[in-house]
Known about the structure:
248 residues, Aminopeptidase, single chain, alpha+beta, eleven-stranded mixed beta sheet, 21% helix
Amino acid sequence: MRSLTALVGQTTMFSCWRALAGTAFGPGRLVDVPHASAAVFPTSAYFNNAVLTGGSDSVAGAVAAAGELYAEAGVASWALWVPSEVSSFGGPDRVCAVPSLVRDVTTLVMSRSLTDEFARDPRVRTVSGAALSQLALDEDVPVRELGPAAADDAITGWALVDDGQVVTSAYTHRHGDDLGIYAVGTPSQWRRRGYAAALMRTVLADAYAAGLRTASLQSTPMGEPLYRRLGYRASGRYEEWVSAPGTS
Length: 248
């Protein structure tokens, strides 16, 4: 059986994972195993994800190969992402069972063409890699310690600062003409104030000014309404399965 066509933004995501290996989130690597591509980050559990690249009948082989790879790297917990052409959170899964894994979250793959419709918000700034590694873990970072992103960084961290507080953050990675946007997060006490939208508009304006043509991301159910208001459309989804405690 032939595999599904790679979802929009998947090539950018793989490029981003490779780039993250050289940041504070590393060391890490992206490894092609039978029927899957697996990101291996022994010290950053969030990135230990394998994406199914084979057909639905190759799931068992992908799990065996990825599981062996993660075990050799000392990684106890990891996830298999199953790409699906379903472009909503409802509807049946592409596969109904995955050996030794349990069903977890679903994320929509969304993208949009870039235009000149957005303006930068002066409260949004790029941040250093060190600050980004803390923000991504939901840690508080004093504004004076954010630092600027270096011009040649493969990963760019972003933060919106309001009234002396970092209230929303994200990071981006450019690959070809596409900008991948990841880990858009707002602490609960700052939500529903338009901060994430302001940060996104700035990121999109910056990408358009830099000559990029598209922007891609993955959305949770919470984020989907915002991204649709910003002109994003879904092209598919990832159905995520995670290793269960006590399995190998």
